[in-house]
Specification:
The protein is α/β, with parallel strands linked by helices. The chain contains 4 helices and 8 strands; from the N terminus they run ββαβαββαβαββ. The longest helix is centred in the middle third of the chain and has 20 residues.
Length: about 220
Amino acid sequence: DISTGGLTADGDTIVIAIIDSGSDINSEDIDFWKNISDIPDNGIDDDENGYIDDYDGWNSLTHNSNITSGNHGIHVTGIAAAIGNNEIGVAGINWGAKVLPVIGSSTVESVVVEALSFVYTVRETYDITNGEQGAFVVADNCSFGIDGGQPEDYPIWEAMYDSLGKIGVISVGATANRNWDVDVEGDIPSAFTTDFMISVTNTTNTDNLFVSAAYGD
């Protein structure tokens, strides 16, 4: 009712970073952001942002720009930003927004940090260059985590959320698919206390808590 994405009042193109298992960068139902300041596949960091050939996004598992297909990532991307009113596929919540695909997982903290650092660099570059390079990333989504994890064991991960928030990027984190209180059992990232993260859980189509969904304050 308010907006389906697209441009801000100042004319910035809204971009959502989806950090997940991969995506279908050839999909006609997603408007993927492209780093036009970097020439793809030439082995050179043309825009000197620290990432070689990051035209399509970044893969923090393989430390390169290879965005491979991932069913979960495609699913999440469609919910967030599949194009509406185009007679193809589905319609996302923000069907006018562009998507920055980043491959990452919670296997080790360093992988998450690399993925979030790339998002930070893309948005910081946009701000520094007054929109000539980078992207106006407003949010990132991580639909993964560590069941029972404690915040004190993942300080850099939480610090990245703080850093992103301070430049205007809100982070979204999924909680555990477990019927427990994260304030008691723990969970990463939803047990973090950062002011710059929205934690989400799993509900039914009647907006009731799903049977295997975590909760907390």
